[in-house]
Amino acid sequence: MHLLQNLSRRDGVLILIGASCVYILTTFLHRGFDSMPSIVINSGLPTYHTPAPILDLGFAKLPETGIIAHAPGWTLFRNLYMSNGTLFLLSSNFSDFPEIRMMTSTGLPAYNTPENIALREPTKQDMDFISPEEAEAHWGGHAQDGERNRIWTVEGNTMLFNDPSQFLDHYYHFVAELLVGARAFIYGAFNPTSRLSLAKDASTPELHPTFNPLPSVYEPPSFSRAIFIHAESYGWRDKPGFNSFVLRSAFPSLTIEVASDWADRVNATAPPKAIDKDAVQHSRANDDDNDSRRAWHFPIALLTDRSAAFRGESCGSRTQRTASEAWEYMVDQGGIDLVGTWWNNVREAVWRFAGVKKQVFHSRRRPDEVNDSANENLQMKLPIPENIVITYVSRQEVRRHLIPEDHDALVDALRNLVKRKKVEEGKDWELNIVRPEMFSKDGQIQLIAKSTILLGVHGNGLTHLVFMKPSQVSAVIEIFYPGGFAHDYEWTTRALGMRHFTVWNDTYFTRPNEPSIGYPEGFQGTSIPVHGETVAQLIEDRLEGRL
Ligand SMILES: *[C@@H]1O[C@H](CO)[C@@H](O)[C@H](O)[C@H]1NC(C)=O
Ligand SMILES: *[C@@H]1O[C@H](CO)[C@@H](O)[C@H](O)[C@H]1NC(C)=O
Ligand SMILES: *[C@@H]1O[C@H](CO)[C@@H](O)[C@H](O)[C@H]1NC(C)=O
Ligand SMILES: *[C@@H]1O[C@H](CO)[C@@H](O)[C@H](O)[C@H]1NC(C)=O
Ligand SMILES: *[C@@H]1O[C@H](CO)[C@@H](O)[C@H](O)[C@H]1NC(C)=O
Ligand SMILES: *[C@@H]1O[C@H](CO)[C@@H](O)[C@H](O)[C@H]1NC(C)=O
Description:
Layout: H1 9-29, E1 66-71, E2 74-83, E3 86-90, H2 114-119, E4 127-130, H3 132-139, E5 151-153, E6 157-164, H4 165-168, H5 171-190, E7 225-230, H6 242-250, E8 255-257, H7 259-268, H8 277-281, E9 295-304, H9 306-310, H10 313-319, H11 322-332, H12 344-354, E10 388-393, H13 404-425, E11 429-434, H14 441-450, E12 453-457, E13 475-479, H15 488-495, E14 499-504, E15 507-509, H16 532-543
Parallel strand pairs: 3-4, 5-9, 6-7, 6-9, 7-8, 10-11, 10-12, 12-13, 13-14
Antiparallel strand pairs: 1-2, 2-3, 2-9, 14-15
Helix pairs in contact: 5-6, 5-11, 6-12, 10-11, 12-14, 13-16
One 2-acetamido-2-deoxy-beta-D-glucopyranose binds next to helix 3.
């Protein structure tokens, strides 16, 4: 029996509809952010009908590398190549490229010794320039024989993280530095308001099936993958598990590759091993080892490197925050505002995942409507909080912590404050005194999402500030051993448009009068003093708009 003869007309129509659906789906799935100008290369081959103009580079001149945006440690490339472990910048004129040491390093763990600093200076093995002629000789196919260029495009947009696990496996460094910095940089680089003016390249929304909410405000093109060049699977995961929680919930489509995956790509483009004499006799290609060379091509790649960021002025001399390089550069370019609008979609994605119930999200204002030069009262542009929630993250169970009596007195002072507000002014201020381990991940995010004030001793527990909802009075209050200060949470709070206060027992500081960095004896100890009444007064003044 012939199958076809048994098919009715109706079946035929159904098959056709089914086939069209498959076709439409697959073509949608294959369309990513098209970074290339729409040049059509005439290869002499038949042209295919495709919904998006696809630029076939198989027989084309190899496209040159371009820098879309660069700050120390943060570089967004167009057409970056990799072969045998070396990132290649393909160009006929290198004079306009940033210094290589400001883009990358050897990716070794960082220690503050002259030997280690020298070992982290990048070599030609890490990154190198290549001229179009050399690239053609290495990777160009013999078009006359129908051979395509020996370059494999890693489609979509790629994040290349060049850091070892030394800092990646900490919640603060992963989320509040790497992700915050990457978000600020990508958001700013593609923002139509930025002076980098890449608006014409921004992706247009397309029909594709998704359960993820579609942002109603500008959202930069999404990234397909993150590659941790020097870290293995557990090298980018923190013990409590927040790194993966945040990464997966905020970027559910992101694919992760780690060091051994990168090694695959390195090995696959490594030159062949020297062939032994006898074998050479029979070798077809003994006169031309160029023909076995290959490369990977990244149409859009964001390369980040911690050591290179520290070579920058902002990170190296002022903040010690790698993200500050990305952030300051994009603020200067007009790509991001000073009230953290650029972080909203990430925060809200994590909230939604964690089951934050009442999603009163940010005002749908476009970032360009914020007048950043009217800096002083910027936070007043944020919403008024619906409820006042004070959250004190206690560290009394872990190593660095308050003098036990001072902790008790602080708790009393906070309770009295909330009671007095209720009795005297009828105000319902909520107070939470918590150890994060008491809650599930969802619970921690739910609590922080409603917190107006986050209070705690300097430490990782304050990293959750990135998921606080910024409001006119939101603030982070960080207790240090008197004389001690570090920029971790201070810079991060400020970069997201909120206020930060440093408490030294019975005094406090805020920008522009924040102390300079200091790690006095006692900084890491278990006898950090704090005067509870001072903190309670600070909180009240802040929430009543007096500060
Ligand atoms: C390939 O990389 C190795 C180091 O991993 C290096 O020794 C070798 O010289 C490289 N080969 C070429 C052709 O660049
Ligand atoms: C390379 O670029 C620089 C800056 O754009 C320019 O001044 C120089 O003439 C160029 N050199 C060549 C060889 O084209
Ligand atoms: C890559 O090649 C090196 C050297 O030949 C080898 O030690 C390593 O196991 C290879 N890695 C992978 C992921 O294949
Ligand atoms: C191989 O490439 C080099 C450039 O790196 C070139 O000088 C050499 O002539 C090429 N060899 C062959 C046989 O094409
Ligand atoms: C921004 O604010 C500054 C200072 O208040 C003012 O001089 C400037 O005109 C404002 N710019 C815009 C575009 O509103
Ligand atoms: C902390 O401040 C209180 C109130 O001013 C003071 O009595 C106490 O001695 C201070 N503690 C330290 C260690 O300075």
